[in-house]
Design a protein that fits this description.
The complex is a heterodimer of chains A (292) and B (553).
Chain A: H1 8-14, H2 20-48, H3 81-117, H4 119-134, H5 137-148, H6 152-179, H7 182-189, H8 194-206, H9 210-230, H10 242-252, H11 259-291
Chain B: E1 24-32, E2 43-52, E3 57-61, H1 68-76, E4 84-91, H2 101-110, E5 112-115, H3 119-122, H4 129-140, H5 146-159, H6 176-188, E6 194-198, H7 206-223, E7 226-230, H8 234-240, E8 243-248, E9 251-257, H9 258-263, H10 268-279, E10 293-306, E11 314-327, E12 331-335, H11 342-349, E13 357-362, E14 365-366, H12 372-379, E15 382-385, H13 399-409, H14 415-428, H15 445-457, E16 463-467, H16 475-492, E17 495-500, H17 503-509, E18 512-517, E19 520-525, H18 527-532, H19 537-545
Parallel strand pairs in B: 3-7, 3-8, 5-6, 6-7, 12-17, 12-18, 15-16, 16-17
Antiparallel strand pairs in B: 1-2, 1-4, 8-9, 10-11, 10-13, 13-14, 18-19
Helix pairs in contact in B: 4-5, 6-7, 7-19, 13-14, 13-15, 14-15, 15-16
Classes of the chains: A mainly alpha (292), B alpha/beta (553).
Chain lengths: 292, 553
């Protein structure tokens, strides 16, 4: 292993990988970084008045074609499609990040506990998680989003339930195999209790497989969030979101208004692609590391 | 290698087995592994010269890291991709580096059989023993009828002392020695003119390794194969091989008949290695000190229930009524063949295996009657050093974290204080404090074992259990670690229980030795007395199995 690099940004710029998965991962990193930049920058720009407010469009023409005043045109309420798409990046990233964080916070400790304790606790938790896992992703989150109502944390909660079983499974299996290692027994012989062993001995050896699942799930979560928005669930109307924009664009599409559908769809597609590349690259890197 | 495709290969004819030249010829062989982690590729072999005549048995010995195993990998072209190799390398008059894939596959197996250190990881757990053999035979003789292959496989198994009814057994049903016999049968299946055995008996106990080596050399003699034995154990090398080659830092240091090299070594390093090996053959046992008893076992029993009917409970009596007294500053050796219950004894004392009956008195307090905090406090006085130091250290924890952790577990110090004490401990076991931020796998085996010792001693125990703590180290490092343990014992007044399968090591290191057989004490006394005049049959067997160096000239 190399030591800590002095400057990660410089290292990333200088990184010229040769394998296909690493090259894809590099593309993924740039895409995700670009979306993060957009997410961070759009809010202040709108606040400064340099970009029009994504929610207001009454004084603008409706269904204006892309042009100099509106780069990506306007939608049926006269709102600027370009700004809405840009703002959607921030919203999507926020919800997805929150959802995955929630899933991590619940799934990882449960998985570690289940794998370490074994016995009836393990069997019960596995049964519960497997039941959750068998339900179709979209169905589960649709039901939850309906029950919880609209709102950013609610959408995140509806999404996170889908992903908890995945972290649970990965972490549980890893814990169960690491538990048999001699160093865990050595720690027991030193007098360490279960909590200490979980925290100091298992956590760092178990958590290595999580980043891969995390990035792959992030790609999936963007799609599910879009699906919720498309069905009119998840986020409130006032928040610009790609899924609901696509749903609104659907009615106008037969009349030749393509720009309201294209840009949000493209934004979603590229983000999902970038996250998937990143996840696949990470996966290849981790499994190569495990082999050598 | 077993599943290699042969059908599309250009047939490379019969290997020239009847030729009179040397089987293996190395001249100025250099090998460098691909650079890893930015480090420049340091050559492992730097100009090695070696020849092996047909039917000859040559042992390649040297300290760890001298490139012994690299020789085997270079001959079979099993080096990782990106390795560089120069010089002359001829196997049966041909250079394996220039062979194509198919010819190489024929070479491996037909010209060279390989026996590895750990047979379990080399056998496919889903294939039965018989399938392993027939598969190898079929890969190299695709045309032969099934029945004939089976007959040949059965014959091979019988030759290595495995009965025909184990043909359908799976690797996990075999003991370590049996698995190694299967590996030998596999290596010999195609009657190769050269067999390379890389530390074939290191993971086996003395008695079994003697039998395995006898079978390996016997088969080699019968088939006229040459044997290249790679080992760090000089006594084994001297016992089973005619010639000895000592390797150091990738070069040949000394070569000659085994008797000569071991009896009158000419190079300083060889002399040092032989001296270290001689020391561990057992010297006079030291006098036991007069000191109070710190640990007392009364009729300790560890029985594990075997599967069976509940009203006819059968037990595996791993430890069956062991009593012993350990004084402060005293070392008691526990010796026995594998499966005699010595590891279970350690695990039971550490609270890792259930105890069924008896008493464990640590400084007069019965551990079995204590509960909760009092038990934890009492257990602090009893620490253990495991066999495999790398496996018993958390790979994600730096050395100083690992040593400081016991203090934090018991709440004996805050973080900065624990770190300071960890550095003290590092120095006490002879490692620089600069090793603190390293990870365990960045250290050598001997250094790892020092870290494990430091970690066990940081809680200031009165009794230290060493479960085969030096058996994975080569003779010289072993001697260093034993010196360290002796030194620490004198400074701290530790009582030590030293578990080993090697009576020789125990006799030179321990004040008293207990020989265990099937969970019971078979014999007890000073180690040197046991070594010279063994009374119990198991002791006699252990003494006889132990390979010894020829007397110094």
């Amino acid at each position: 292993m190399n030591g800590p690099l002095p400057n990660p940004a410089a290292a990333l710029l200088a990184w010229r990988p040769c394998s296909l998965s690493a090259r894809l991962a590099r593309v993924g990193i740039w895409v995700v970084l670009a979306y993060l930049l957009v997410a961070v920058v759009t809010g202040p720009l709108v606040a400064l008045g340099w970009l029009p407010d994504p929610g207001s469009g009454l004084d603008q023409p409706i269904y204006a074609a892309p042009g100099w005043s509106h780069w990506c045109g306007t939608d049926r309420l006269g709102r600027d499609v370009c700004v809405r798409t840009l703002s959607g990046a921030g919203v999507a990233l926020q919800v997805v990040l929150l959802a995955l964080l929630l899933a991590l916070v619940v799934g990882v400790p449960l998985g570690m506990l289940s794998g370490y304790l074994g016995g009836p606790v393990d069997r019960l938790l596995v049964l519960l998680m497997d039941t959750l896992y068998t339900l179709p992703v979209l169905l589960l989150s649709v039901v939850l989003a309906f029950l919880l109502g609209r709102g950013l944390p609610n959408a995140a909660a509806a999404l996170c339930v889908v992903y908890i079983p995945q972290y649970f499974r990965v972490v549980r299996n890893q814990t169960a195999s690491v538990k048999a290692e001699l160093y865990v027994e050595a720690a027991q012989s030193l007098g360490a209790g279960p909590v200490w062993i979980l925290r100091r001995y298992l956590f760092r050896n178990v958590i290595t497989s999580v980043p891969v699942v995390l990035t792959l799930n992030a790609a999936d979560a963007v799609l599910v969030l879009g699906g919720l928005g498309f069905l009119g669930l998840g986020l409130p109307d006032s928040v610009p979101e790609w899924g609901s924009d696509l749903q609104e664009a659907l009615t106008a599409l037969p009349t030749g208004i393509w720009w309201t559908a294209l840009y949000p769809g493209l934004a979603m597609f590229v983000l999902v692609l970038g996250l998937s590349f990143l996840g696949e690259g990470l996966d290849a890197w981790v499994s190569r590391d495990g082999r050598s | 290698m077993l599943f290699s495709s042969l059908h599309d290969a250009p047939r490379c004819g019969r290997l020239p087995m009847g030729s009179t030249g040397p089987i293996l010829l190395l001249e100025g062989l250099t090998v460098a592994y691909p650079p890893a982690g930015g480090a420049a590729a340091e050559p492992v072999l730097r100009g090695l010269d070696l020849t092996l005549q047909p039917g000859e048995r040559l042992a390649l010995v040297g300290p760890s890291g001298c490139g012994k195993s690299t020789v085997a990998r270079a001959v079979l072209q099993l080096l990782p991709p990106g390795s560089r190799s120069g010089g002359r390398l001829e196997l049966l008059g041909r250079d394996p580096r220039r062979l194509g894939r198919a010819a190489l596959n024929r070479l491996r197996g037909e010209a060279v059989g390989l026996v590895f250190q750990d047979p379990m990881t080399r056998l496919n757990p889903l294939l039965s023993i018989g399938d392993h053999l027939t598969d190898t035979l079929r890969a190299h003789r695709p045309g032969d009828p099934r029945r004939e292959l089976r007959a040949r496989a059965l014959d091979l198994l019988q030759r290595v002392g495995i009965e025909a009814d184990r043909f359908g057994s799976y690797p996990h049903e075999f003991s370590g020695g049996m698995r190694q016999r299967v590996a030998i049968a596999l290596a010999m299946a195609l009657r190769p003119p050269l067999v390379i055995a890389d530390e074939p008996t290191t993971s086996l106990d003395v008695a079994v390794s003697g039998q395995v080596m006898a079978e390996l050399t016997g088969l080699c003699r019968e088939l006229g194969s040459a044997l290249l034995l790679i080992t760090h154990d000089l006594a084994t090398a001297g016992r089973w091989c005619d010639r000895l080659a000592v390797l150091h830092e990738g070069r040949l240091l000394e070569e000659g008949p085994a008797q000569r090299v071991l009896g009158a070594p000419s190079e300083p390093l060889t002399r040092r290695l032989v001296a270290a090996a001689r020391r561990r053959e057992g010297g006079a046992s030291p006098e036991p000190p007069r000191a109070p008893v710190v640990l007392e076992l009364h009729q300790l029993r560890c029985w594990h229930p075997l599967p069976g009917l509940p009203w006819q409970q059968r037990w595996l009596k791993a430890v069956d009524g062991v009593s012993l007294q350990l004084h402060a500053g005293e070392t008691v050796g526990v010796v026995g063949a594998s499966g005699c219950g010595k590891s279970t004894l350690c695990r039971a004392l550490m609270g890792l295996a259930p105890v069924r009956g008896g008493e464990v008195l640590l400084q007069g307090r019965d551990l079995r009657r204590l509960r909760g905090g009092a038990l934890r406090e009492a257990r602090r006085r009893l620490q253990m050093v495991f066999q495999d130091p790398l496996a018993c250290l958390n790979p994600a924890m730096t050395v100083e974290e690992a040593i400081a952790d016991p203090l934090l577990i018991h709440g004996l110090a805050d973080r900065p204080e624990a770190r300071r004490r960890a550095h003290e401990q590092l120095e006490a076991v002879g490692l620089p404090a600069a090793f603190g931020p390293r990870l365990p796998r960045q250290l050598s085996g001997g250094q790892q074992q020092r870290v494990a010792i430091a970690r066990a001693l940081v809680l200031r125990p009165t009794v230290l259990l060493c479960d085969e703590s030096v058996s994975m180290l080569d003779a010289e490092v072993q001697a260093e670690v034993l010196d360290l343990l002796r030194d620490l014992q004198q400074r701290l007044g530790l009582g030590m229980i030293f578990v080993t399968h090697d009576l020789g090591v125990a006799s030179g290191f321990c004040h008293r030795v207990i020989v265990l057989d099937r969970g019971r004490i078979a014999e007890e006394g000073p180690g040197d007395v046991l070594l010279c005049a063994p009374m119990a049959p198991i002791t006699r067997r252990l003494v006889e199995a132990c390979p010894r160096l020829p007397p110094a000239a």
